[in-house]
Amino acid sequence: MNDHLPDPAALLAALANPVRLRLLADIADAGDDGCAMNDLARDSLSARQLRDHISRLVQVGLVESGGAGITARLDRMHQAHDALTSGDDPEITTFFKQGRLVELPRSPVRRRAVLMQVAQLFEEGRAYSEAQVSAMLFAIHDDHAALRRYMVDFGILERDRRGMQYRLRREP
Length: 172
Prior knowledge:
alpha+beta, Arc Repressor Mutant, subunit A, 2 domains, three-stranded antiparallel β-sheet, 8 helices
């Protein structure tokens, strides 16, 4: 199962194919019990073509194949919709799982975007002690010191001259 948020563009591209769209509808009609590959056979499709279409649906997270057969994951469509309408960048939200940062991107542009997302934890204008900043960052990532350092280096947080207090910069 794909644990990350679905990529809305990949999901829509997979559903742009009318055969896959019909297959997804048939799988969804089978309910939570799922269906077998044989139940999806079409005269117009070879076994290989059917497997390829199902594989594409699995790849984008719309169906799962397991012991109970093939089941639809229509909730992924809702998640893709939420990602598109939330204003959040799906490429950034993939670095988070259940509210925790699971990986820091290597790309400086993406890293800055992820850090800007993290900055939403802080209130503008409020001063925080180093212990408070560390506790807030530790709640989302084990390496809180690295996060704090990156946020200062990218100009998202500013540290006072004594290094005792941190503030969110007004315009990072």
